């Protein structure tokens, strides 16, 4: 299947630095279908009923004040109004029958509610409407109950302990500019949380990138020489020149045999293994690169920011420690 380089995704959290960025995977796009014949015009619809008067707006000051440990005073008046809508209409996930706002005020031990409120505040500060935030939060928290993908990773392409409670898998393309932008954020997050996170790289070379396969071949070859991460970093640092003829010199800089790599690049070496990684991505519903999964749960690109990755990690740890459920307050 063909892959094109950019995909506009519906952001789960619109505030993130890489919202909507990614190299699109055309292999996952649906084939074009034959247009259906035009239907006969429908009869005119009856006039709509009179519109009921709108309910009185929620008082932002009353909703947002008096919450222990949280201060929303820096938000604009518009953002406060939208956040008040979220706190008044969205429910928390602490097992209590209260709105998010009521939980924040009466159940101060619920750390989950505070995480939700911080994310909601970030979203409205970036211009999202309260109703949109509620939908996106519901989609995000609903994703924890969806079926998880299973991945076969190579420990030589992972950083962190295999016994870490959370495995973060990234499908990436060395020639994808969005992967290059996400790289320092994801790796910094993994290193900061080394005791809780194992971070694994899975190559997914896109057919739209002419040098993606040779670059991935070079990375797997370097892995077999014990220098995967060194080659991984060098490839991203030289992303503008990943032509096959340029890669042997890169190998030499790493103390590897450039002539042997040149021979590998002229063969089909590693291509079957690369197809295996691509098959894993397709099975997981990958729509582009970079694609990130926490314990097999797809994480929206808008989480590719340290603060939001940390939020998702805390949620994942809570979900796992409570045997696939949210902790009650």
Automatic annotation (TrEMBL):
Compositionally skewed regions (Pro residues) per UniProt: 38-52
Family per record: Belongs to the thioredoxin family. DsbA subfamily.
Family annotation (Gene3D superfamilies): Glutaredoxin
Keyword Cell membrane: no
Record-given protein name: Thioredoxin domain-containing protein
Pfam families (UniProt xref): Thioredoxin_4 (PF13462)
Cited InterPro entries: Thioredoxin-like_fold, Thioredoxin-like_sf, Thioredoxin_domain
Organism: Myxococcus landrumensis
Lineage: Bacteria, Pseudomonadati, Myxococcota, Myxococcia, Myxococcales
Spans annotated as Disordered: 29-60
Keywords: Disulfide bond, Oxidoreductase, Redox-active center, Signal
Top-rank lineage group of the source organism: Bacteria
Residue ranges annotated for the Thioredoxin domain, each copy included: 110-275
N-terminal signal peptide: 1-16
SUPFAM superfamilies linked to this entry: Thioredoxin-like (SSF52833)
């Amino acid at each position: 299947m063909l892959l094109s380089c950019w995909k506009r995704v519906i952001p789960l959290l619109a505030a993130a630095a890489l919202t909507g960025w990614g190299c699109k995977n055309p292999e996952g796009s649906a084939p074009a279908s034959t247009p259906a014949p035009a239907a006969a015009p429908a009869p005119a619809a009856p006039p709509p009923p009179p519109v009921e008067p709108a309910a009185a707006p929620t008082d932002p000051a009353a909703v947002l004040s008096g919450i222990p440990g949280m201060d929303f005073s820096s938000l604009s008046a518009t953002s406060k109004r939208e956040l008040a809508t979220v706190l008044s209409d969205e429910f928390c996930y602490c097992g209590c029958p209260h709105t998010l706002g009521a939980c924040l005020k009466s159940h101060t031990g619920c750390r989950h509610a505070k995480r939700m409120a911080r994310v909601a505040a970030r979203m409205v500060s970036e211009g999202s409407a309260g109703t949109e935030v509620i939908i996106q939060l519901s989609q995000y928290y609903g994703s924890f109950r969806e079926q998880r993908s299973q991945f076969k990773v190579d420990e030589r392409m992972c950083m962190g302990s295999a016994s870490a409670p959370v495995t973060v898998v990234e499908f990436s393309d060395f020639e994808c500019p969005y992967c290059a932008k996400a790289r320092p954020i994801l790796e910094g997050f993994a290193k900061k949380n080394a005791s809780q996170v194992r971070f694994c790289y899975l190559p997914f070379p896109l057919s739209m990138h002419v040098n993606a396969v040779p670059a991935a071949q070079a990375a797997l070859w370097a892995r077999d020489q014990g220098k995967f991460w060194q080659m991984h970093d060098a490839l991203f640092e030289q992303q503008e020149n990943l032509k096959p003829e340029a890669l042997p010199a890169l190998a030499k800089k790493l103390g590897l045999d450039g002539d042997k790599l040149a021979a590998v690049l002229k063969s089909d070496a590693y291509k079957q293994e690369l197809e295996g990684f691509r098959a894993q991505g397709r099975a997981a519903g990958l729509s582009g690169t970079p694609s990130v999964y926490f314990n097999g749960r797809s994480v929206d690109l808008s989480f590719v920011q340290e603060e939001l990755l940390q939020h998702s990690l805390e949620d994942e740890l809570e979900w796992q420690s409570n045997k696939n459920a949210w902790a009650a307050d």
